[in-house]
Amino acid sequence: MCVRALQAGFLRMCVMGDWITFPNGKKGRRAWENDTHRVAAWQSLLRSAHDVLPRPFCDCRHHGHNLELVVRRTVRKERGQLAEAYHLARMPRQGGLHYIDCPFHEVDPRQSGQAAYAPGVVQEMSDGSLRVALRRGLAIRDVAQAPSTIERDSARDSAAGRRAARPRQSRMTELGLLHLLWEKSGTNSWHRGIGRARMWWPGVRQRVMNAASDIMVGRGCPLGEYLVLIGYGDEDGPALLREKAQSCGQNWRMLLLGKVDSLRTLRSRPKPGQPGRPYTSLRFDGAQDYHLMVSASEDWLTRLSRRFPRAMHALDQERADRKIGVIGLVTANVQIRRDGTKLSVMAWADDIALMEVEPETLIPVESGYELQITRALVEAKRAFTKPLRFDAGNDVVHPDFILTDTHDPRGTPMEVFGRDDDRYLTRKAEKVAYYEEVYGVRHWWSWDVACSPRQWPPFPPAAPDGQGDEDE
Ligand SMILES: [Zn+2]
Q1: N or C: at which end does the chain have fewer Cβ atoms within 10 angstroms?
Q2: Residue 443 pLDDT more than 70?
Q3: 120-155 pLDDT, tens digit each
Q4: Which of 257-261, 314-318, 338-342, 345-349 has the lowest mean pLDDT?
Q5: How far apart are the CA of 278 and the centre of ligand 1, in A?
Q6: Where is the composition biased (Basic and acidic residues) (predicted)?
Q7: Is residue 216 part of a domain?
């Protein structure tokens, strides 16, 4: 599909309920930030409200007052020019107060794998930004604190042959960071107004970068300074990559995020008297415009197959046969190589995290059953969120999905029970008891695949009046 058609789909989004009221009395819709005809007016509204009181607010109310929002300013490069850009963020510790169908609503961290981090790993600062403690700092001199918690835990689980009691995670891995970026940018949520927008990469890039500018790593450095998104049909993308590769230079690692097209073993060119050496090569979708080479040591292919078997299985198939998409986050040392007038970026990976997603909506899925439910919810024009696992093990209770368009202001949790071995049945009983106690017998949904492999129960009905039509 051509970029223009995708962009048109993106702009045709039908949006409701995302009106913002500004202190000068004017109103604007958050969706305008992605509308080429209105983005200038939207940015000027935000500029007028930056650093002034009172603040703009959305339509959510708490104790009789509207919930205020903060305007953030970032400087970024567009078509070779420095441009200042503004975006809205919620006030600190108010994520749970926004209505569940408001774009500023935040899922309670207790409903995702975030609950498994030790205190202080993810910290909300007084200005509303987040500070995270990464397993490995981004300065090249930093080394990883510990082997990847997930690899360590799965090794321990298989050694013990049972679920071991885990300490809470004291650092965030690259996979946790990928989940955090997806959650903060709202890319783990869906409503019918989004349409084909998720297939327009520049829009996805902008939202993820906005989220990254509010996440601090190390000593007050915004993650956005080290992150680059690689994707199909993004005309500003290659210049942004070269620029960031230059600014990260010899001292900083860079984070590369995109849809993975292939991961395989290649051999370096043989030198006289020396055979070529095998290495792992990762290729992002759309990478041909970026002159980007991502390599890692040979053993990464085995490590990734062990840690992300479903993603690796999908990448082994022909593109047309893949049922899921794979998003990759690579931490790498980068170098710019100049060959005449051509500049290439060479990236040597320290770490690779993968996440399986439904290919058109980019909603993360953890099994083939979740993929089926995601597609059925999209088809039924429902609004929902996919809580993410972060670095948690299987012992953290969080729903597979939360419907956000039902009558329940907390959302309606959804569980897919996909197995029937003894260990899993114990987990299932724990989850059932939890939902019945917290939500009540009729206020959650589940599909027991072992009992009914072909058909899931009807979804809980949506509230009337087009809820879930907030902006993308
Ligand atoms: Zn709100």
Answers
A1: N
A2: yes
A3: 899 888 777 899 999 888 887 776 655 444 444 444
A4: 338-342
A5: 52
A6: 150-160
A7: no
Instruction: Let me know if residue 417 belongs to a domain.
Output: yes
Angle at 231 between CA 226 and CA 235, to 5 degrees: 95
Pairing of strands 445-448, 292-296: unpaired
For ligand 1, the distance from its centroid to the CA atom of residue 146, given in whole angstroms, is 39
Task: Based on the fold, state whether residues 336 and 443 are members of the same structural domain.
Answer: no
pLDDT in tens, 101-119: 788 888 777 788 888 888 8
- Going from the Cα of 351 to the center of ligand 1, the distance in angstroms, rounded, reads 37
| Residue whose structure tokens are 């003894």 | 422
CA of 315 to the centre of ligand 1 (A): 39
Please list, residue by residue across 58-86, b when 16 or more beta carbons sit within 10 angstroms of its beta carbon and e when fewer do.
Answer: bebeeeeeebebbbbebebeeeeeeeebb
pLDDT reading at 6 higher than 60: no
- Calculate how far, in angstroms, residue 469's C-alpha sits from the geometric centre of ligand 1: 13
With a cut of 90, say whether residue 180 has pLDDT above it: yes
* Co-location of 46 and 81 in the same domain: yes
Q: Mapping DSSP to helix (H, G, I), strand (E, B) and coil, where does residue 431 land?
A: helix
| Pairing mode, strands 401-403 and 412-417 | antiparallel
Q: Please give the distance, rounded to the nearest whole angstrom, from the Cα atom of residue 102 to the centre of ligand 1.
A: 5
Shared domain check, 249 and 344:
yes
Measured in Å, residue 467 CA sits from the centre of ligand 1 at 13
Confidence (pLDDT) at 39: 85
How far is ligand 1, taken at its centre, from the CA of residue 104, in Å? 5
Q: Quick one: average pLDDT of 461-467?
A: 73
Residue 397: domain span: 368-448
Among 161-175, 202-216, 240-254, 348-362, the range with the most confident prediction by mean pLDDT is 348-362
Domain shared by 397 and 299, yes or no: no
Burial of 196 (C-beta count, 10 Å sphere; 0-12/13-18/19+): middle
Whether residue 357 is found in the same domain as residue 320: yes
Clarify whether residues 243 and 355 are in a common domain.
yes
CA nearest to 177, candidates 128, 218, 126: 218
- Token look-up 């759309």 returns 286
Q: Looking at residue 302, what is its pLDDT?
A: 96
Q: Is the dihedral of CA 225, 230, 233, 237 positive or negative?
A: positive
User: Which pLDDT band, with edges at 50, 70 and 90, does 44 fall under?
Assistant: very high
What is the Å distance from ligand 1's center to 103 Cα? 7
258 and 329 in one domain?
yes
Q: Has residue 427 been placed in a domain?
A: yes
Give dist(CA 43, CA 271) in Å, integer: 55
Claim to verify: residue 353 and residue 426 sit in the same structural domain = no
